[in-house]
Design brief:
The chain is α+β, with helices and mostly antiparallel strands and about 140 residues long. The chain folds into two domains: about 5-15 and about 65-135, PH-domain like, CATH 2.30.29; about 15-60, no CATH class. The protein is about 40% helix and about 25% strand. It has helices at about 15-40, 45-60, 115-125, and strands spanning about 5-10, 10-15, 65-70, 70-75, 85, 90-95, 100-105, 110-115, 135. The protein has a five-stranded mixed β-sheet with strand order 2-8-7-6-9. A hairpin with a 3-residue loop joins β7 and β8 (about 110-115). α1 packs antiparallel against α2 (about 45-60). The two termini are about 35 Å apart. It comes from Vagococcus silagei. InterPro entries: EbsA-like (IPR020215). Keywords: Membrane, Transmembrane, Transmembrane helix.
Length: about 140
């Protein structure tokens, strides 16, 4: 029986995708505010709908996470079709930057934005995984 530990870390995708996503999300809020001002403070179905959509998209944007197991890194996204797995054994390098991490495999490069506590916990957890044989560069 193997001891399977699962750790969860929050992330945002690389900078360009994050800016685009959060810009579109904030447009929903501004549309609701504009609708509220146009109706002189009277709450309409449009305003309620924009606020509900804004809350839903904020929730979806904040629930992105990486799940680190003993053998794999599972990266969840908003859409299920965009979720993927990275085997720890194929990771060649981890570059730790000021605002996040970049994972380099033999096939692809993945960049993520992370808060410092999450970035630190992720890099320390990854160092302790026996399946991870790659190199880690940068300050935590």
């Amino acid at each position: 029986m193997s001891s399977s530990k699962i750790q969860v870390f929050r992330y945002q995708p690389e900078l360009a995708a994050s800016v685009i996503y959060w810009s579109w999300t904030s447009i929903l809020l501004f549309l609701g505010i504009i609708g509220l001002l146009e109706e002189r403070g009277k709450i309409t179905v449009f305003i309620v709908l924009m606020f509900i959509l804004f809350v839903i998209f904020v929730y979806l944007g904040l629930k992105r996470r990486m799940i680190l197991t003993n053998e794999q890194l599972r990266v969840s996204a908003i859409l299920k079709k965009n979720q993927y797995l990275i085997d720890l054994s194929v990771i060649e390098k981890i570059l730790i930057g000021k605002y996040g991490v970049t994972i380099i495999t033999d096939e692809k490069e993945y960049s993520y934005i992370m808060f410092p506590p999450s970035k630190k916990a992720f890099s320390e957890s990854l160092k302790n995984e026996p399946q991870f044989t790659g190199e880690m560069f940068g300050k935590i």
